């Protein structure tokens, strides 16, 4: 064999060896390590969730998911917990809304992207809908959002930095806590007073304000309480905000959803000084929570919100606005929905509230607080009369196991010792649910011990 042939054979053997071992890696070589260090690369996979994601926490979901909810198989489940008015199919949305959506679809004009703040004609329709003689706004003062929760998210994000604080009601809607704490914003809860139909404890509110307080959230009408504040009480809240120069985020998703004998006042209609971001939408009054159309209305007569207004526009560009078909339908929905629809809906809910209240007042150990609007009622549990249970969570969990009735424990709203019921269910289900709740309470209710007997 010639020298040349021998060299070729050795080359072929080396190539075969490299081919057979190409998937075998014995770790980085010294030159590889130098390259890794120069590029600050990782030596192993270490993929983690962001701080924002880890800080996002929904108290209701956490509590409910942790409960052992095993209904009695002999009894049909009745859920009094979910604030979705469409669940039972007994509260139809207005036909004007359906017609407007169908028209928007068939026009084929609204299938593309819209402006991040929403179509101008839709924003003008909202401005007309919410304006009052003392608080007139224009399209430029409205930002359309993905539901009222999306509106609240933008407002909190625009006003507060990590380490600063916002004041929220207790009991109150848990989304405030979820949205704020995910951003590193501190939540401070001001008390509502059940003995005063859930009015704000004004002294407590004042005590919580400091230099780092960036907003007060006021929810009127209220979830979970069903309270509707008087003009005088709202003016007292506004006076505090003006005195300490703290803007208000007004959660007014239940605007005008008030029972006979009460009156709704928007916060902005009463204020000529305090800058207010009002959050509303179609969800509750129009009974279409799945359509996800909310709005922010900027009330700022003294131009205090100049930078905040720009910030809200910038934040709206993160998701490029809500559903364009619903935006296109919005002017007709707001303008053409008949007053009879609102009246019939509220009358139905108020009748249910009256029925719940009457039945709960007859049940030992329970004390309902009559709502004035919205879709909810809070019911106090005299835990001392139910010694078998350690908490409202334990109480409601056992009621599901034995009676297949689920009431939301008010620990979800940072207010233990109560439960919340929704008022949107059919009357016959209310009667059945109350029968079961009464049976449950009479089984476990204990009279107080007197003189050791």
Q: What does this entry look like structurally?
A:
This protein starts with a helix and ends in a 9-residue tail after the last helix. Helix 5 crosses helix 12, helix 6 (120-130) packs parallel to helix 12 (324-336) and helix 7 (147-159) crosses helix 8. The relative contact order is 0.15. It is globular, with a radius of gyration of 29 Å. The longest helix has 23 residues, at 339-361. Strands 2-9-8-7-6-3-4-5 form an eight-stranded mixed β-sheet, sandwiched between helices. A four-stranded antiparallel β-sheet has the order 10-11-14-13. Strands 1-12 form a two-stranded parallel ribbon. It is 40% helix and 14% strand. The protein is an alpha/beta fold. The protein has helices at 3-20, 30-39, 51-54, 59-66, 95-107, 120-130, 147-159, 175-182, 202-208, 231-244, 306-316, 324-336, 339-361, 392-403, 427-444, and strands at 78-79, 142-145, 165-170, 186-193, 199-200, 213-219, 248-251, 276-281, 294-299, 366-369, 376-381, 405-406, 408-409, 418-422.
